[in-house]
Amino acid sequence: MKKLLLIFSVVFIASTAMFGQAGSIVGFWLTEDKDSQIEIYRVPGNKFNGRIVWLEEPLNEQGRPKVDDKNPDRALRTRPTLGIEILKDFTFSASDQEWADGTIYDPKSGRTYNAFMRLDGNNTLRLKGFVLGMRFLGRESVWMRDPEKR
């Protein structure tokens, strides 16, 4: 009985630590150009998504809110850029110390890429979007944690 209790305790502590690590990505992040802020949050299924919550320039030349005009889906081209979910379905891999198997949407081009993310310290997030399932064919972006909700 003591062995069973010990095994249960070790498994519980290990899973709690891993679950805590997975959530360390939650928060507000400034993009590489510091022209937008992304909120990363947990969704059902222990996945992580992220949406645009602040834009340095939220209005277009006509003084109207910027829209997702490059989206390949014509029906989505009039939705406001502010609020778009650009990160979807990332899962944490404790063995690789990364959030993977997700996608990142680039509203500037209208393209969606497979992606993974890694924390570099507590306040630097390295994201890499790639194509054709080949991680080496892609672009890396570095975001900084932003403690302010803008």
Question: Mind explaining what this structure looks like?
Answer:
By secondary structure, the chain is mainly beta. It has a single domain, classed as Lipocalin, CATH 2.40.128.520. It is 14% helix and 45% strand. It has 1 helix and 8 strands, in the order αββββββββ. It has an 8-stranded antiparallel beta barrel with strand order 1-2-3-4-5-6-7-8. Strand 1 and strand 2 form a beta hairpin. The chain is globular, with a radius of gyration of 18 Å.
Number of domains: 1
Calculate Rg over CA atoms. 18 Å
Shape: globular
Query: Which CATH first-tier class would you pick?
Result: Mainly Beta
- CATH third-tier fold name: Lipocalin
CATH architectural category: Beta Barrel
The poorly predicted ranges are 2-19
Helix and strand topology:
Elements (H helix, E strand, L loop, with lengths): L1 H21 L4 E4 L5 E8 L3 E9 L29 E9 L4 E9 L4 E9 L4 E8 L2 E12 L5
Antiparallel strand pairs: 1-2, 1-8, 2-3, 3-4, 4-5, 5-6, 6-7, 7-8
